[in-house]
Design a protein that fits this description.
single chain; 4 domains; three-stranded antiparallel sheet
Amino acid sequence: MRLDSWIGIALHHRRVTILAALITTFAGVSLVIDRPKGAIIEWLALPLIVAGGSLLTWAVWPEIRGFNLPAFSMASRLLERLTFRGQLVPLFPVIGVAIILSDFGYNLVLSATPAIQTEDTIVLLAAGFLLGYRFVPVRFARERDFVLLFFLFLNAILVLPLLVARVYFADLERSVDLYSWTALAPETSAVLQLLGVPNTVHAVAGSTAPGLTFTLERVPIEVTVVITTACSGIYSFGIFASAFIAFTLTEFSHPSRRVWLLLGFGLLAAYIANILRMVIIVLIGYYTDSGQTNLQNMLLAHSYAGWLIFLAWISLFWTVLFKFLRPAQRLPVVIENSTKLRAGEPVCETCDRPLGPAFPALRCDCGSYYHRACLQGRQCPRCGRLQASDSGGNWSAT
């Protein structure tokens, strides 16, 4: 298939293209924030970010596909409420600087490890975006809202619980192992039991994280896997869950039943992917390791297979979800394509000639304009919709 054919398919299925770009980009972000130490796979972070980011930029660039009016999305309405109808937006730079100073102050004064940790990286990235928020052109308002919501949800999922736990337990060095205890270890244990792998979940001396103990099949050696915060997959879950929530809120205009189903099943897919990752890691150790391997097979699976399994699962599941649960209500699109504007006025998508009162025209819901005489039938050549709205020939610049 020729390159221009692939480009046409990508433009026709713009939301699928954006979803694929997001998965690729945030796979790279996940490797940066929660990379498997010492594994070759960590070097994929930069290529994935570059490839996914480039595809995402191409898919949302106004000269390629136009841009959406920001006021129509659920994201814009949510942000309008969070910012008190935009009153807080001028204060974003001040808030960003305050967050940066607070984070560095916390590390220097209160923390025993002043080095930048994973949570610090998440906080500083959010603060940096707040500093540059108002520099983003208005035509990229939807993409700007997406990034802002992503950082808000990422901090709400990964950073806020950590701070609450440290305040509650009066321990500034405490890790959040509640996720491992309640939402990962018991579920992983139950699945392994169903698969015929006897195991127990228990506390481990000297650690606040749960331990999962099982006996290798090939030799009677008892193995305990301590599921710490770093090994639990919570960072990967947080990254992809935040991205999916932000994606859903910025792509659709109304909270219909299908939108909630899409959002709920998308988050469930990320959660199931994390349990599946842990189960497969343990299964590899259970069936293949012995006294001679010294658990190297399970360690290799932890460094490589686990991350790939997580990524492959959510990619497949989200794609299927998006195909079958895609909401019918979509954001209206206003085309601002430089090749389709003359002196600020829209032109016909078919003949490239200006529109005006003397030339009766139609406007499709996707934002495309056509002279009535140029449009053959009732199907829009650009998006394939069967209906086009009649404006009676009275047109003005959009």
